[in-house]
Specification:
It is a single chain. The protein is mostly beta strands. The strands form three sheets. A six-stranded antiparallel sheet has the order 6-9-8-13-16-11, with no helix packed on it. Strands 4-1-14-15-12 form a five-stranded antiparallel sheet, with no helix packed on it. Strand 8 and strand 9 form a beta hairpin. It starts with a strand and ends with a strand.
Length: about 210
C-alpha cells in the first residue's frame, strides 16, 4: 500500500522456462513451464516506487515473427509519461527464444527468435509512469558467459537516480534464469549450455525525479 509497481523479475530453478513476465494490477506476475520431471520453485519480484505521486500503466504491442527467423518489436509510452520498466509474453512451449527485453527510447523492446516452421505472435509491454515529473535513463554493462557455464551481470544506477527496473540482451542460445534488483542495481544470471563463449548485457532503468 502506498507504492506503485514499476517492474518485476524472477528467480528460477533448473528446468523452468519463463514465457510471461508482466504487470498485474499493482504487482508483477510470472508464468513458467516446468520441463523437468520434478517439481520446481520460482520466486517472483515486484519493483515498487514510493512517494512519487504518480501512477503506472502498461502499454502493449503485439507482433508476429515469421518461421525460422528473428523479429523485433517496441511498445512506446504515450506523451506525458515516462518508461520505468517492461515485460514480455512469448511461448509456453519454447517455440520462441527471447534474446532482449530492455529499454528503448521512451518505451520497451523485445527481440525473439522463432525456432519453428510457422509464424508465431509475441507481445511487448512498456510500464509507463504518469503524473510524476522526471526522466529515466538506461545504464548498461556487458559480460562474457563462459562455455558450459553461467555468468552474473550487474549494472548500478548513476548518482542519485533511483532504480525502477531492468532488462537484458543475450547471445543466441543463452537463457536468463534470474533477474531482479539488488540495492540500486539491476542484476541478471545467465546460463550458457553451448561449447563456445557468449556475451550478455545487463541494463538498469534509472529514474531521476
Amino acid at each position: 500500500a502506498g507504492s506503485i509497481v514499476t517492474s518485476g523479475g524472477f528467480a528460477l530453478q533448473d528446468g523452468l522456462w519463463v514465457y510471461n513476465s508482466t504487470k498485474n494490477g499493482n504487482g508483477w506476475r510470472i508464468y513458467a513451464r516446468n520441463n523437468s520431471g520434478n517439481s520446481r520453485v520460482m520466486n517472483i519480484y515486484a519493483m515498487c516506487l514510493h512517494n512519487s505521486g504518480g501512477t503506472t500503466s502498461d502499454i502493449l504491442s503485439q507482433a508476429q515473427v515469421e518461421p525460422n527467423t528473428w523479429a523485433h518489436d517496441e511498445a512506446i509510452c504515450p506523451t506525458g509519461s515516462i518508461v520505468v520498466g517492461g515485460g514480455f509474453i512469448t511461448s509456453s512451449y519454447g517455440y520462441l527464444e527471447l534474446y532482449s527485453s530492455s529499454k528503448s527510447g521512451n518505451g520497451w523492446q523485445t527481440y525473439v527468435n522463432n525456432v519453428t516452421g510457422m509464424g508465431r505472435p509475441f507481445y511487448t509491454y512498456a510500464i509507463c509512469l504518469s503524473g510524476a515529473s522526471g526522466s529515466t535513463v538506461h545504464a548498461s554493462s556487458g559480460n562474457i558467459v563462459p562455455a558450459g557455464s553461467t555468468a552474473h551481470g550487474i549494472t548500478a544506477c548513476p548518482g542519485s537516480s533511483i532504480l525502477t527496473g531492468g532488462g537484458f540482451a543475450i547471445s543466441k542460445g543463452l537463457y536468463v534464469y534470474f533477474m531482479n534488483a539488488t540495492g540500486n542495481s539491476w542484476q541478471n544470471y545467465v546460463k550458457n549450455p553451448l561449447a563456445t563463449n557468449k556475451t550478455m548485457a545487463s541494463g538498469a532503468i534509472c529514474y531521476s525525479p
